[in-house]
Amino acid sequence: MRYFWMITLFVTVTVVSILGIRGQHSIKPPLMVFPDMDEQPKYKAQSGAGFENWADGRVARPVPAGALGRAVDSVQAFDPAYQQQEAHVTTGKNPDGTWVARIPIPVTHALMALGQEKYTINCKVCHDAVGSGNGITGKFGMVGMANYHSDRLRLMADGEIYNTIVHGKGQMLAYGDKLSVEERWAVVLYLRALQKARMGTLEEVPQQERSQLQG
Ligand code: HEC
């Protein structure tokens, strides 16, 4: 009998807390032990709940005139610089659907320098400074970064590499919204330089500099 009331109390509390008190409606927020930011000062989308600063009272604001989407296609559609380029330059594809074999813009030292800069900013974290795919992100769990020094990537057309930069591939995100047409080809050029740095033969080094290497 001593435990009767304790057991009754325990059962009552358990049943009520599992089933709750049904049938009563309340507009007050429930008692929350862990609020988890459920209650926030904010305006709900489509609510039109009079945001005092705008005359029309709408919460969702119209897109400002001239704003561009960040998607690659919308940038290409609206940017005059893109439209002046020929299609194979912006897409890396010939009219017959094959890949552009060689970089279709003038190859200069300036383009190489630009490529090095953009590669270092955008690609090095994964593909590392020499392009063997051992970037710092590997230490944080990223796997499968391509090694540029495989035969497949050495023989790949410039246009296909360009396309990978624009649209990404597999795990790799797209860089078309971060790099202009010129910057993308510049990165392709720098990537080729990284590949060349490993494939080069002594015969390709100017005569007067060979002794330096051999020494
Ligand atoms: C966040 C990591 C990451 C970054 C940054 C990154 N890549 Fe990659 N990249 C990958 C991964 C992962 C793959 C392998 C994709 C696959 O085959 O699924 C890859 C594959 C590639 C390939 C080979 C594609 C093929 O056809 O197999 C090329 C070329 C390439 N990346 C170039 C670049 C260039 C250029 C940049 C900078 C503009 C860049 N990547 C930035 C992760 C990255």
Could you characterize what this model shows?
The chain is mainly α. It has a domain at about 90-200: Orthogonal Bundle (Cytochrome Bc1 Complex, Chain D, domain 2), CATH 1.10.760.10. Helix content is about 45%, strand content about 0%. It has helices at about 5-20, 70-80, 80-85, 85-90, 110-120, 125, 150-155, 160-165, 180-200, 205-215. The protein starts with a helix and ends with a helix. Bound molecules: heme C. Heme C (HEC) binds near residues 122, 146, 164 and 171.
What would you say about this model in short?
The chain is an all-alpha fold. The protein has helices at 4-19, 72-78, 80-84, 87-91, 109-122, 124-127, 151-155, 158-167, 181-199, 207-214.
